[in-house]
Amino acid sequence: MIACNVEIVRTGGLLVTDDSTALRKRPVVLASASPARRGLLAAAGVPAIVKPSQVDEDAVEAAASVQSLTVPELAQLLAEAKCDDVSRRLGREDSGSIVIGCDSILEWQGLALGKPGSPIAAQERLHKMQGTSGVLHTGHAITDLSTGRNVGRCCSTQVDFAPMSEREIAAYVRTGEPLNVAGSFTLDGLSSPFVAGIVGDPSNVIGLSMPLLRELLDELGVDWLQVVSYS
């Protein structure tokens, strides 16, 4: 007799089988301190261990400046650097986790805009950006520590910004939210009323494209049900 872990649930007169328990669960490590990225994973049912990378992003960008990288290429390079850093630090003690590294950069009128860093910079940036459009690029890098294989891809989403008054800009900057996010705005936070629309994946704008994550895991041979928990 062959035993198999299959749960049969009767829902609305239909029989639903669930064999996800038969799959070996894989721990997920998020190489980022971003609450937004962790929130996206949690909302999709993916528990994640947070281990922020120790990458010096300014140093990586400075070294990359001589390569004439495009904004998507720079975002992907930073994502890979973060993923590699955490993967190396975990390598000796962890042989089964999936490590995810991401980096987001807003491309606006040919400029690569990361975190503004100061209230003055954020206010000046928002004054210029309001009523215009940009493209949010998020680089994704994933390493399977059990095999050493890694995959990655950058996802891009157009963002249309609504017009903002000077009072609205000043009030938003005073909250502190735009100081530590790429492009000085968030889709899931206080600036959501100032985003008129997007073209593409909304989760990518928040910091991690969930559909792309599923695709990349599939490329590594990892089933989505190995990282998700619906119970």
Describe, in short, the structure shown.
With 231 residues, the chain is of the alpha+beta class. It has a single domain, classed as Maf protein. Helix content is 31%, strand content 26%.
Overall description:
This protein has seven helices and nine strands. Strands 3, 4, 5, 6, 7, 8 and 9 form a seven-stranded mixed sheet that branches. It has 231 residues and is of the alpha+beta class.
Give keywords.
231 residues; alpha+beta; Maf protein; seven-stranded mixed sheet; two-stranded antiparallel sheet; 7 helices; 9 strands; 31% helix; 26% strand; disordered N terminus
Structural class: alpha+beta
Rg, alpha carbons: 20 Å
Instruction: Name the average pLDDT.
Output: 90
As residue ranges, the low-confidence spans are: 1-17
N- to C-terminal distance: 28 Å
CATH topology: Maf protein
Number of domains: 1
Q: Strand content of the residues, in percent?
A: 25-35%
Q: Can you lay out the helices and strands and say which pair or pack?
A:
Blueprint: E1 7-11, E2 14-18, E3 28-30, H1 35-43, E4 48-50, H2 57-64, H3 71-90, E5 98-108, E6 111-113, H4 119-129, E7 133-144, E8 150-161, H5 166-174, E9 195-199, H6 202-206, H7 210-219
Parallel strand pairs: 3-4, 3-5
Antiparallel strand pairs: 1-2, 5-6, 5-7, 7-8, 8-9
Helix pairs in contact: 2-3, 4-5
